[in-house]
Write a structure and sequence with these properties.
single chain, 10 strands
Length: 146
């Protein structure tokens, strides 16, 4: 009787381990499909989110020469997040013109450093990504642009 109990216990443990492996494998792949990082200049982080977030975004697009990263410095009065790391909509590409760096956003046009960016979105967890751009500011997935 004791031997049968040990077999059931071992079988249950094996099933739990297999489930954890499957869950971790699936969750890791999903994160990589939603967020991407380009190698261009500037570095462009994009998302493929299918839902809208409504936090207001208004700020000036800035470029860091050292990291080749774009940031949005908030112009919203009393904004607790004064520096946002923009995660642009899918299809956004890096763009440069007259020594100014920025992005070309499908259906919205070109935004260069010094331009005001207005829209909406929200904070997202991109802890599965590695980029120097993620070290300054709060990540902000832009889901609408005015």
């Amino acid at each position: 009787m004791k031997w049968g109990h040990k077999v059931k216990r071992l079988t249950g443990s094996v099933v739990v381990i297999i489930c954890l492996i499957v869950i971790n494998g699936c969750s890791g792949d999903a994160g990589n499909e939603i967020f991407k990082i380009s190698d261009g200049d500037p570095v462009v982080l994009t998302h493929d989110l299918e839902y809208g977030m409504e936090e207001e975004l208004k700020g000036v697009l800035e470029y860091d020469n050292e990291t080749k990263c774009l940031y949005i410095k908030s112009t919203i009065k009393d904004d607790l997040n004064d520096s946002n790391v923009p995660i642009w909509p899918k299809g956004t590409t890096s763009y440069s013109e007259n020594d100014l760096h920025g992005v070309n956003i499908p259906d919205h046009g070109i935004f260069l450093e010094g331009d005001t960016v207005e829209g909406g979105g929200g904070g997202v967890d991109v802890s599965n990504l590695e980029s120097d751009c993620l070290e300054e500011g709060i990540t902000f997935a832009i889901t609408s642009i005015k």
